[in-house]
């Protein structure tokens, strides 16, 4: 009975969560753990796409000597228009000497380039070095005439959308389009760009080195169709690129500045190759690709031979905006006593900046940035320095975390758990899952992980409760999670309202079902012991079946509609959530209280029936069973905190079913059935004595509990009653 009721209850909670209009699009993918939402202590969240929208906006182009922001993009545009109009006037003027003039330019490398040519080079590099494909929607109405359709749709700007695996790349290509250099088509072998003047430039793709999370960079080798020049373009994270580009004094500093503004940075570089250099590279590269042992290492080594002394072109800064209502949601979760850990693959500065702007770390709090450590001694010193600080947020990188966990796992987790917020940056997916398991192991508290991409799946599956967000990165996370939501702000309502209700209701329902079973067992025990422990069943077949189903099922199950606090209150006072994590709604104490209630009531009902009905003892079954059903219905009424119209219907429906069955199932209400000749006479039920005696027994079994409940609410009211009154 307990199993069935709880499973049906959980299904009902899931249905309520999915039908909640305030959190549209929420999907419950598991029907076993909605109560866990009500007892979370640690929330581990990803950054990109979870706290932020994963919609990038191009904010900054830095060329070392000069920096362009959103308000000065028109300057870049004019530079691009000028430089391309010059090139084309040269080309059209003397088509024969166009290549020699280029050759002369490139043979004088030491002349400091003008700003205009540097912008030209940088924008061209950003427009070529990527994995983006422009897609044209075919227009409706020309489906029959496909040849015309292709001509018709070819380069119309309104019809073009870009597709790529990462939103950063799309943003960069959209930006080059906005300043005049447009990516119009791309296939396996070539890329075509359109200049501001409408000319099409074609570049043949010779090699492409895709982005990986290990290398943190991508490269492409292209050949210009008009001049035949071969160029190797590369872009990537500053950590990877700082060793590859030629010596310069500004890259590191500017990257830090942009990261402190919360921008995601990419470094763009190029290297011109002669035909001989490229042929040499290609032969070595193909040979490496054919090797049987250590192929990946050999290929990487050949590519690295090119990645030397590259010319630094520019640094780009892209902003990832916070999702709607992230700040109030994090504020609410913090007030609810939930500790929030942000695990991200981003740079330390970017992560810290987002942590501040999203109010994950409140403005007044100190932030302790854990220095990078590599040895046991350093970790020891750094942990001691951290131990001296009180109530400050911790920011630590993945590598330092590994070292600390290797030598001082217990001490580190103990200190980190006291922090109001923890930010781990440069985390790998396996590290994220490892941190979740550590928290579960060391604290024994419930953890919840929330993320949006494939890199968060391991963390989501490791946590007690996984929540996935359907974002730009596909549905891997939301399919692997227990709950799938569409926006981060929905998590507030999911935990505060649905988590609270599911936990409270399951606790009440579970204990009530136990009480329902215990009370009838107590009555059987009393009955047998009075009759010299004779093995006579008190209630015959159908009554036993009917008791747990038709007579009491609806009222007991209607406890899943009960709520102690209105949803608005639960969201307004998230502090109420703290009480739930102590697990006081369902503990040994509450269970034993219910056992005592069951034994008391079972004893009263049976002894009452035996005492009051000495003369008509034959009717003991009818009397005790009637009193039992009434007691159960009254107990449900006593347990309910907020009435719902369906509860009232359920109470009266069950009572009606019982009264009807008294008339039809009369042979079941005798002892030992026909052997005693005790059929139920309807005349006896309708007498006043029967009614008052049954009422008396019921009152004695229930009234003391009502009085106790009233006194308890008077002298130690629960925290929420102060708000609801």
Report on this model:
The strands form three sheets. This protein has a nine-stranded mixed beta sheet, with helices on both faces. By secondary structure, it is of the alpha/beta class. It is built from 28 helices and 20 strands. Helix 14 (398-418) links the parallel strand 16 (392-397) and strand 17. The chain has three domains: 24-53 and 322-489, HAD superfamily/HAD-like (Rossmann fold), CATH 3.40.50; 55-78 and 115-135 and 156-319, Calcium-transporting ATPase, cytoplasmic domain N, CATH 3.40.1110; 495-722, no CATH class. It is elongated, with a radius of gyration of 37 Å. Residues 95-111, 141-146 and 671-679 have low confidence and may be disordered.
Task: State the end-to-end CA separation.
Answer: 35 Å
Uncertain segments: 95-111, 141-146, 671-679
**Structural domains: how many:** 3
**Average pLDDT over all residues:** 86
Task: Using the CA coordinates, give the radius of gyration.
Answer: 37 Å
* Annotation field: number of helices: 28
Query: How much helix is in the residues?
Result: 40-55%
Overall SS class: alpha/beta
Instruction: Give the total of beta strands.
Output: 20
Sketch the major β-sheet: 9 strands, mixed
Strand order of the largest sheet: 1-20-19-18-2-14-17-16-15
Q: How much beta, percentage-wise?
A: 15-25%
What sort of overall outline do the alpha carbons produce when their principal axes are compared?
elongated
Protein name: Phospholipid-transporting ATPase
Cofactor: Mg(2+)
Catalytic activity: ATP + H2O + phospholipidSide 1 = ADP + phosphate + phospholipidSide 2
Membrane topology: Multi-pass membrane protein
């Amino acid at each position: 009975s307990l199993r069935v009721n709880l499973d049906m209850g959980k299904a009902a909670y899931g249905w309520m969560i999915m039908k909640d209009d305030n959190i549209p699009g929420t999907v419950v993918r598991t029907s076993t753990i909605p109560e866990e939402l009500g007892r979370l202590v640690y929330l581990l969240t990803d950054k990109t796409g979870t706290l932020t929208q994963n919609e990038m906006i191009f904010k900054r182009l830095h060329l070392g000597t000069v920096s362009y922001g959103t308000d000065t993009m028109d300057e870049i545009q004019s530079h691009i228009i000028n430089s391309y109009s010059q090139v084309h006037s040269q080309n059209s003027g003397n088509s024969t000497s166009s290549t020699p003039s280029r050759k002369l330019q490139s043979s004088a490398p030491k002349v400091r380039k003008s700003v205009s040519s540097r912008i030209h080079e940088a924008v061209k590099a950003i427009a070529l070095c990527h994995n983006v494909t422009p897609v044209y929607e075919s227009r409706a109405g020309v489906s029959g005439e496909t040849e015309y359709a292709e001509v018709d749709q070819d380069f119309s700007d309104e019809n073009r959308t870009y597709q790529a695996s990462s939103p950063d790349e799309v943003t960069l290509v959209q930006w080059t389009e906005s300043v005049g250099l447009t990516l119009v088509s791309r296939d396996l072998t070539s890329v075509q760009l359109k200049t501001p003047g409408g000319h099409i430039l074609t570049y043949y793709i010779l090699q492409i080195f895709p982005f990986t999370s290990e290398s943190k960079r991508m490269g492409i080798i292209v050949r210009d169709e008009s001049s035949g020049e071969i160029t190797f373009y590369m872009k990537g994270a500053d950590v990877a690129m700082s060793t590859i580009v030629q010596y310069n004094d500004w890259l590191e500093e500017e990257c830090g500045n942009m990261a402190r503004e919360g921008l995601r940075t990419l470094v763009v570089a190029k290297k011109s190759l002669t035909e001989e250099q490229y042929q040499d590279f290609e032969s070595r590269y193909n040979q490496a690709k054919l090797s049987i042992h250590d192929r990946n290492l050999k290929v990487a080594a050949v590519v690295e031979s090119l990645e030397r002394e590259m010319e630094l072109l520019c640094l780009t800064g892209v902003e990832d905006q916070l999702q709607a209502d992230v700040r109030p949601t994090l504020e609410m979760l913090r007030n609810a006593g939930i500790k929030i850990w942000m695990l991200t693959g981003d740079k330390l500065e970017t992560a810290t900046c987002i942590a501040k702007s999203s109010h994950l770390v409140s403005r007044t709090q100190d932030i302790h940035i854990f220095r990078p450590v590599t040895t046991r001694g350093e970790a020891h010193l750094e942990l001691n320095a951290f131990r001296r600080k009180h109530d400050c947020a911790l920011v630590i990188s993945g590598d330092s975390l590994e070292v600390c966990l290797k030598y001082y796992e217990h001490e580190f987790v103990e200190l980190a758990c006291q922090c109001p917020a923890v930010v781990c940056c440069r985390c790998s997916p396996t590290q994220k899952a490892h941190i979740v398991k550590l928290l579960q192991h060391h604290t024994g508290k419930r953890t919840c992980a929330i993320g949006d991409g494939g890199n968060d799946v391991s963390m989501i599956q490791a946590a007690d409760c996984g929540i996935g967000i359907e974002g730009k990165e596909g549905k891997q996370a939301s399919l692997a999670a227990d709950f799938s939501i569409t926006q981060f702000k929905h998590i507030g309502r999911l935990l505060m309202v649905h988590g609270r209700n599911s936990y409270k209701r399951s606790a009440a329902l579970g204990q009530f079902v136990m009480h329902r079973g215990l009370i009838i067992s107590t009555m059987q025990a009393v009955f047998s012991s009075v009759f010299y422990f004779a093995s006579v069943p008190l209630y015959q077949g159908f009554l036993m079946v009917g008791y747990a189903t038709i007579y009491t099922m609806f009222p007991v199950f209607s406890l899943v509609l009960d709520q102690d606090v209105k949803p608005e209150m639960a969201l307004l006072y998230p502090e109420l959530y703290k009480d739930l994590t102590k697990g006081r709604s369902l503990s040994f104490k509450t269970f034993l209280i219910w056992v005592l209630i069951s034994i008391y009531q079972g004893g009263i009902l049976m002894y009452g029936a035996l005492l009051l009905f000495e003369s008509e003892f034959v009717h003991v079954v009818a009397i005790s069973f009637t009193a039992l059903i009434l007691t159960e219905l009254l107990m449900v009424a006593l347990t309910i905190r907020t009435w719902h119209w369906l509860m009232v219907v359920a109470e009266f429906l069950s009572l009606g079913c019982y009264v009807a069955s008294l008339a039809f199932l009369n042979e079941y209400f005798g002892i030992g059935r026909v052997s005693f000749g005790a059929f139920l006479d309807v005349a006896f039920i309708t007498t006043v004595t029967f009614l008052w005696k049954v009422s008396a027994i019921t009152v004695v079994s229930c009234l003391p509990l009502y009085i106790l409940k009233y006194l308890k609410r008077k002298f130690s009211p629960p925290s929420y009653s102060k708000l609801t009154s």
